[in-house]
From TrEMBL:
Transmembrane segments: 16-36, 43-62, 93-118, 173-192, 204-226, 267-288, 308-327, 348-377, 397-428
Subcellular location(s) per record: Membrane
Chief localization: membrane
UniProt-recorded name of the protein: SulP family inorganic anion transporter
UniProt keyword Transmembrane present: yes
A single GO BP: transmembrane transport
Recorded topology in the membrane: Multi-pass membrane protein
Pfam families: Sulfate_transp (PF00916)
Residues annotated as domain SLC26A/SulP transporter: 12-392
InterPro entries recorded: SLC26A/SulP_dom, SLC26A/SulP_fam
One Gene Ontology cellular component annotation held by this UniProt entry: membrane
Keyword terms, alphabetized: Membrane, Transmembrane, Transmembrane helix
């Protein structure tokens, strides 16, 4: 299919089922992030609001074909700290509105260019790490041990456990009913992934995730009727707020308190939210574009503007901060989404289901949803990805592995930062080695050394060039040739000029420069 055919309504047969799967993935994540961010069950609906705004508002404004936005687990700690600092959710909503304005301005100032400077090895490491994290974090839900919210990406959890201790407790306190539902759900999802199933028209339009959810509700109902010990209850089910009337539903929406506009802490929180949310979005944009089978490129400045508008709207009506989120985006891609209509559809379904069928949603076992996320995690961290990165060499493989390990044992943003440091080291190391070509030959006048500078010579190269000049033998002739260079940084020119004027005469080295502006062409003894 050509990119020209990817208009919003031409691919509904692909985008609707993908949007439905994204909705099933997003629903528990929205609720889980809301509970973890606020610590208040009465504010669970703030996660739904953010999910709807991320799907519909940002979906319409964004230039990302397959990216899905919503409340992110990566901002949980920031939101918790902000609520403690500001003392009220209404003051926090004001800070969120201001954060959205900052993102909007950043988009107009072309700050989205930052997204192009994340190394590919780090982005792929992030994808693999999120896949492993999903598997490790969803196993407790698949085993029926739900002591922490779905969507927690950090190694250290809010309940005092960590990723690995949670696995131990999930095995120790597992539920047979949850395991049965998880295994059956995984079996159905794997079956639906088989090529022969995709040739059946009904199953191309109705995704396996929908059958998994419906079957999970039916199986749990049968457990309640015939074997109550196996049945999932309470925290093992989706827990969406249920309104008994229209007025009660409207009470789920909260509005910012503009009386806090003169509070300095509000602005501190706003800048923090804007920076972290923008970074997480740009990382997800880069990762989503790499997964896109059509290899479309998202305009990052437009994405920042869309995220800014989304956070303004979310803040005005009582929602959580929004970023583009790779888990939902990858679920969209894996489910066959073609355009951003799938994102918009997921937001619309999220809103309609919260209004009309909250009671049914609250019958869905988390074990069924965990199975969906387990498969998403597997697809993000396939063995073929590790083999491909290994074949690229150590310069790519080591930052890739370090990023994975760092994310697994810290959180997403800290892990990315650690991976970036390692990737930059290898970039500098490679740059150090390849900033010039060194050639040595002998003629009747003695030893002649030619240093051919590369096309781009920046301040990053001054260390290697300076070291090479210092090691030149006494009495030699050196030709520093910049004729093939498009640009030579002033720092490098300064090193060459200083060597010519001071170090070379002391070692009786004759220096000749070619095609280098700013340095005299002939040196002396």
């Amino acid at each position: 299919m050509s990119a020209k055919k990817l208009n919003l309504f031409a691919n509904l047969k692909n985008d609707f089922p993908a949007g439905l799967v994204v909705y099933l993935v997003a629903l528990p994540l929205c609720l889980g992030v809301a509970l973890a961010s606020t610590g208040r069950p009465d504010l669970l609906f703030s996660g739904i609001i953010a999910g709807v705004v991320g799907g519909v508002v940002i979906g319409i404004l964004s230039g990302s074909a397959l990216g899905v936005s919503g409340p992110a687990a990566g901002l949980v700690v920031i939101v918790l700290g902000a609520l403690e600092t500001l003392g009220s959710f209404e003051a926090f909503l004001l800070a969120l509105v201001l954060a959205g304005i900052i993102q909007l301005v950043a988009g107009f100032l072309n700050a989205g260019i930052i997204g192009y400077y994340f190394p590919s090895s780090v982005i792929k490491g992030m994808l693999a790490a999120i896949g492993i994290t999903l598997i490790l974090k969803e196993i407790p839900h698949a085993f029926g041990y739900d002591k922490d919210f779905i969507g927690d990406e950090a190694f250290m959890q809010t309940d005092g456990h960590n990723t690995f201790t949670e696995l131990y407790y999930s095995v120790r306190y597992s539920s047979v009913g949850a395991i049965i539902i998880s295994l059956v759900s995984l079996g159905i999802l794997i079956l639906f992934d088989r090529p022969f199933m995709k040739r059946i028209q009904l199953f191309r339009f109705l995704p396996g995730a929908l059958f998994v959810v419906v079957l999970g509700v039916v199986m749990n109902g049968l457990f309640q009727a015939f074997s109550p010990d196996l049945a999932m209850k309470g925290e093992h089910l989706v827990q969406l707020p249920v309104a008994s009337s229209a007025s009660e539903f409207l009470s789920f929406f909260t509005f910012p308190d503009f009386s806090f506009i003169s509070n300095f802490d509000v602005y501190t929180v706003a800048f923090t939210l804007a920076i972290v949310a923008s970074l997480e979005t740009l990382l997800s944009v880069e990762a989503t574009d790499k997964l896109d089978p059509f290899k479309r490129s998202t305009p990052t400045n437009r994405e920042l503007k869309a995220q800014g508008v989304g956070n303004i709207v979310s803040g005005l009506i009582g929602g959580l901060p929004i970023t583009q989120v790779i888990v939902r985006s990858s679920a969209n891609i894996d489910s066959g989404g073609k355009t951003k209509m799938s994102t918009i559809i997921h937001g619309i379904i999220l809103l309609l289901s919260a209004i009309f069928i909250p009671f049914f949603l609250n019958q869905i076992p988390l074990a069924s949803l965990a199975a969906i996320l387990l498969l998403v995690g597997y697809k993000l961290s396939k063995l073929s990805l590790y083999r491909a990165m290994y074949r690229l060499g150590w310069d790519q493989f080591i930052p890739f592995v370090v990023t994975i390990v760092a994310i697994l044992f810290t959180d997403l943003l800290k892990g990315i930062a650690i991976g970036m440091v390692v990737a930059i080291y290898f970039i500098l190391r490679k740059n150090y080695k390849h900033s010039y070509h060194y050639k040595k030959e002998n003629n009747q006048h003695g030893e002649v050394i030619t240093i051919q500078l590369s096309e781009e010579v920046t301040f990053l190269n001054k260390g290697s060039i300076g070291y090479t000049l210092d090691q030149l033998p006494e009495g030699s002739t050196v030709i520093i040739d910049g004729s093939k260079s498009v640009d030579i940084d002033y720092d490098v020119l300064e090193i060459i000029q200083d060597f010519k004027n001071h170090a070379a005469p002391l070692k009786n080295i004759k220096v000749e420069t070619r095609g280098i502006k700013g340095v005299q062409s002939v040196g002396g003894h």
